[in-house]
Every structure is written in C-alpha cells, then in structure tokens.
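User: I'm new to structure prediction. If I give you an amino acid sequence, what do you actually give back? Let's try with this one:
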Amino acid sequence: MAQSANGTNDTEARSARVQGIKDLIERTFLAGMGAAALTKDRIQDLVEELVDRGQINAEEGRDVVERLVARSRDEARTVLKRADSSLRGAYRELGLGSRKDVEEMVLRIEQLEHRVKLLEQNADSQGAKKT
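Assistant: Good question. You get back a string of structure tokens that encode the predicted 3D arrangement of the chain. For your 131 residues, that looks like this:
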C-alpha cells in the first residue's frame, strides 16, 4: 500500500511539474505577445501623434522611438532568456536530455551498431573457414 501511495505521489509530482512547464510556456507566450504589441510602427504612430499635438518635436520623437524600440527588444530578450533558463531547469528536473545529449547518444549507438556489424562479419568469416 505504501508503494501505491508513493507511486501516486510521484505521479502527482510529475503532473505538477508538467503543469508548471505549461504555465511557464503560456506566460512566456503572453509576455512575448505584450512585447510584440509594442512594435516600432505602433510606437511611431504614438510619437507622430505627440509631434502633431506639439508636445514634442520631430527629433525628440525619433529619439523616443529609438529608445522605446531598443527597450522593447531588450525586454523581449530578457523574457526569452528567463524562459530558456526555466525550461532547461524543468527539462533537467524531468530527466529529459538536451539536444546535444541526444545527438551524442545517437552517435554512440551508431558506433556500437558498426562494431557489432564488424564482429558479426568476423564471426561469419571465422565460421566459414572452419567448415
């Protein structure tokens, strides 16, 4: 009975981790959407409106556009870095390998398959010599 409860706890913990990953992906997506909403075109439209109202001059407007676009890009990069770091941690926690890990394992398997093939060929030639 203890193992059943323990197995259930493990399953619940794994489900909670998977849900956490889903939540992280959703938050990252929504943050990206928020950053994308503040596109250069939208910023330029807002700045042009301020220039038209006489609240800022054209040169100030260009500076504002450049600063806001740069800030938007920086924030998007920061969000992506955080999401990447969090996802890598979640993958490690779930026991999932990285792409590099998988590529190394595939290479190792291919090497082993080649060795087995060579050994089989050697065994076949040894058997043919005995008969």
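You can read the tokens as a compact description of the fold. Here is one thing that stands out. The chain has four helices and no strands.
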